[in-house]
Structures are given as C-alpha cells and as structure tokens.
Amino acid sequence: SYDLSAIGNVYEGSFEMSASNYKMALDCYLQSLAIREKIGAPSEIASSLNETARMYDAVGKFEKADALRIEGLKIAEKGNDIENIVYLNNSLGTDFANRQHDYKRGLDYQLKAYEASKNLKNNFQLSYDVVKSVATDYSSLGDLKNANKFFLLSASLNDSIRLNSKIHDYNLSEIKQKLENEIAKERSLTRDAEIAKGKAEEKNLAVLSDTFIVGSIVLLIFALFMFNAYR
Q1: Radius of gyration, CA atoms only, the chain
Q2: 117 with 85: CB under 8 angstroms?
Q3: The overall pTM is greater than 0.70
Q4: What is the mean pLDDT of residues 66-92?
C-alpha cells in the first residue's frame, strides 16, 4: 500500500500534468486504499481517502472527491488523527470557498482546521495554509476585522517557514559539502590507483623488453653456434 501510494505521488507530481498521469495516480491510490481498508490503520485509510480525493478533483469529479474527504474526516476524527483532521477540513473548506463560492460553509471547515492545527508541532506550512484560507474567507464575507487578524497571523507563520527553510537549506548545504568531499576523496583514490596501475604496467613492459632482448641475444648466439657447426 505504501509503494502504490508513493508511485501515485510520482504520477500526481509529474511535470507533465496529463490525463493519463492523473489516471495512473488515481489507479494507484485506489489500489492502496483497497489494501488499507482491509489491513490498514485508520490514519492510513484517511490519508488514502485524501489522496484519492485529490485525483477525483483533478479529473473533475468534485462531488466524489468531497464525499471521500467527508468519509476520511469521520475516520480521522474517530481516531483523533490531528494531521488528517487539519488536511481534510482544510481541503473541504478550500473546495467550498474557492470552487463553489460558499464562503460561509468553507469558513466553517477552515475554522475547524485552524482549531485542530493548534495541536500540530512544527508543521508551519500546513498551519500557514489554513490561517491564510481563514483570512481569505473572512475577507470574502466582509468581516475585515477578523480577516486582518488572520492575515497578520499568516504573516507570522510565513516568517517561521522562512526561518525553518534557512535552517533546512543550511543542513542541505552541509550534507552536500560532505558528499562533495567524499566524491573528491573517491576520485583521488581512483586517480592514485590509476597512477599505480600505470607504473606497474610500465614496469611489466620494461621487464618484458629486457626479457625479449636477452632472449634475442641467446637465440642469436645459438644460431651462430649452429651455423658454425653446420659449416
């Protein structure tokens, strides 16, 4: 189920966002979901429902997508799966607000996502997405006071994301430097091995050359001896 989900992620995130790639992703997610419904944990089932819903959105089956999200949300709430509660409420709120322009219903889901997101640890990106959506919904409904409040909160979360991003980039740079050093060391060892091999080959050629000269002299002496004996 994890492998199928991962393959679906690859097709979904492909640079070529084609109908065939979406179909392949949906097929993988459905297979993964079927396995998880038999033997998986509630959180895994909720995640699969969310993945599958995204693909139904991509192919224009919005009602099917929302039905799966609502089903996944019930499972997530039953298992107190905070991350999926946030994801699914956020997705439902975004769909109602952005696609159906039902900002009130969208806001209801987004506020649930916001309350649940308070229990997330260090997932600033998801919290930022939720808070920004809440601010946008309030703005669309004409509640500028609350809209401003949540926009300011989203700005603060965005700063946290940037700070984490810098730390993350630093860690990546350190890893990259270590890899480059290892590669340089490997190249140096390979170069030394090639030099040693070259020297060994030169030595072997010199030995062969000396052997050939000595052998030639011996053959010449033997030939002269035979010539003289024959004469």
Answers
A1: 35
A2: no
A3: no
A4: 91
114-123: buried (b, 16+ CB within 10 Å) or exposed (e) per residue? bebbeeeeee
The overall longest dimension of the chain from CA atoms, in Å, is: 126
Confidence band for 126, pLDDT divided at 50, 70 and 90: confident
Residues in the chain: 231
List the Cα angle 109/113/115 in 5-degree steps: 115
Place of tokens 């224009």: 60
The rounded distance, in Å, linking the Cα atoms of 153 and 203 is 75
pLDDT tens digits, one per residue of 186-195: 777 777 777 7
Among the listed residues 20, 23, 33, 25, the one whose alpha carbon sits nearest the alpha carbon of residue 9? 25
Looking at residue 85, its pLDDT comes to 92
> Measured between alpha carbons, how far is 95 from 57 in angstroms, rounded to an integer?
9
